[in-house]
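@channel sequence for tomorrow's demo:
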Amino acid sequence: MDNIEFNDKVDTNKREIKIEDAMDNVKAGNGAICQMKEMPDGTKRYFNVYGDVHDGWDHILNIFMDSSSFSPLIQAAVHGKLKKPERKENNEYKVSQTTIDYTDKAITWLFINTEEKIFLEAYQRDQKKGFYDPQIDEAWEKTNGSIEINGEKLKENKYLYYVFLFASLRNHLEAEGFIDQLRELNKYSGAGVLVSAEDEDHITCKIVQGKERPDLPCEVFLMGTITCRPYLDEILAGARISKMSFEDRIKEAEAGDTDAMEALAKAYLEGDDVPQDLEKSFYWWKKLAETGNAMAQFNTGLYYAKGCGVERDFTKAAEWMQRSAENGDEDAANAVKAYKAADDNLRKAQAGDVAAMAELAKLYTQMGDSLQQLDVDTDYQEAFRWAKESANQGNPEGMYVLALCYEHGRGTEYNSEEAIKAYKQAADKGHAPSQWNLACHYLRGFGDHVEEGLMLAYQAADQGYELAIKGLEQSGNTVEKLNDYYASEETRVSLEGTQYEGRADRCERIHSGDELTYKMAKDKIGKDALELFFRGGSVGFVYQHTVGKIIALLKLNRAKLKVTVRNCIPKSKRGTRARNADVTLNMILTEIKPETPEERAKRLAKEEADRKAAEEKRRQEAEERKKAEEEARRKAEEERKKREEALKKYNEEHDIWQSQCDALREKRDSYIVEKLAEERKAIEDQIGKEKDTSVSSAQSIITEQSKRKDDAERLLGSLGMFKFGEKKTQKAIIEDAGNRISEAKAAIAKAEELYKSKKASVEVDARRKEGTFRNEAEKLYPFPAEPSKPF
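structure tokens (generated this afternoon):
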């Protein structure tokens, strides 16, 4: 494959740069972060992964899609259901690069469209979303600016399907305005389009960015496939924030850094490195929300709703949730309606409206489930209080919330009996969620009510309750799955106690295929059962433990039952005529609500389409396996030689690196020794200076007081016999001067002693800065990067 020089302005000079500086440069539009891959011919290619590269290259489109959407999208492209853009003047890029990340496989497709060629490559994603040698590497020359795709060429190269799809899908997204929207967004945010298709008529596209982007599976050495978020902007942002001091995070956040805002909001909420401060947490969530971040807008609404760090205000909570919903947060869309109605419901509930009480109880339950860092008991207690008041006045929704509180111990003690009681009261009023939850209790063995549990589940499903519909489907209790169950040899149904004593009919008259009639009856212990008849005569019972699910459907008039004899083995006693028999039955249910012609036609069409798609998928997989096996054999030998060469080169480079590190280590040691000597001298000079200052000051006092004492002694000697007052004064001066001289001498002795003490600890004091000198030496003489192992 010819080399594509993605960026003729790439600066390949190696130099160290801090993560913070790299991110700042990218955000300022002064560069990009690319990934370099050396090709087999020695050329280097640069893949843009974060930031802008240069004008004339369109790196704006990143697509996320499930691989199962591939076939429906191909059908849509073939049938012309993907739009084509209206080409505008100067709206063409010389090269367009589109990445398609599968959300269910660790594969990234790279689709490059240039003026001369189209390139298609597939890469295995690793945890850092790295690009290594492509697993698929195809290129097609253009003729007059395009390539022709037809059936014959598709047989020669199936990857033309991918070319056709990716080109059509890009055009569709451009026609729908998604590419223009992406260009208007911050182009460093890693935004993309999430595409999904159930079939060719149901294609959905949505712009996602930041944490709204899907988690992607990645290959990890020795671990197989894991799910993570291998987005370089998030990896760099996390590393950048983690290296900042808390004060620097605040400065960056105040300057508009959204990653720092989020980190501060979480830290103050969780008490991480700082005391928990809900007001500061709210401040940073709100500041981040004002930038348009959907997650922060959701949290701001939640803080208003709970009164977390701010006065409770449901109106503002609804406003922020609405903004979050408009930015694509699905959870926010569900909360908007509840918060908008909260104040009105509170007024109505206080006035005695039982429906409003139930709505308030649900709202407080939902809020209690959020922000687990806070005391949730208050919200749950409010939920329990309103639910109980609503339930006591006969509101089924209130009964339902009350049952949830008892079942999960929210706002009250856990009490399964009270939960079942409340569910039953609501279920008796036809409340579908309560019917389903009570059914789950019964079917899990909470009481001997399995048949009643099934009836409740069917009743909830009849009301369109999604959980009940899915639950019956998954547990195999739909009519279709029950028929499969009873048709199995392992679950065959038998008559119990088939007796013919004294009756006109004899068991030898019953044959395989005979149809039996039935009616609902009670068995010997009073439980529901089916009593079966042949030609008007009772032939036995089928008990509840065998056909309880069928009985539940019959009681609800949800199905019709046809009972036929699978086989009949007469049993005689001592050679007499048979008086009883072993009879096994076929139980076939027919749903009362038949499938409409339209539903049937749609179902059959879908089954046929699924069958064809499955056949095509199996064919493609078989071809891919065959090609992969051949390619694997060819590459195995090449890989062995490459490994040997790579290992040899690595050993040589590692020896050079080790020598460089040894030399630098010696320089570091010399630097530390030199700095320690300087530090010792500085300390010695300082303590010497301190001693000299103290001694000099004390010596001055001694000189001064000695003169004062001598003067007083001379004057005292010259005074006459009766100069008592003056003599007393001079004696006091002599005594004071003597005391001061003694104190000064003591100060000199103390200074000498302190000097000796400090001098003895010079080495210890100097060694305290050894760590600092070591860090300085490491920065001054950094080790070169260790060569990477080839495998």
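heads up for whoever presents: The longest strand covers residues 559-571.
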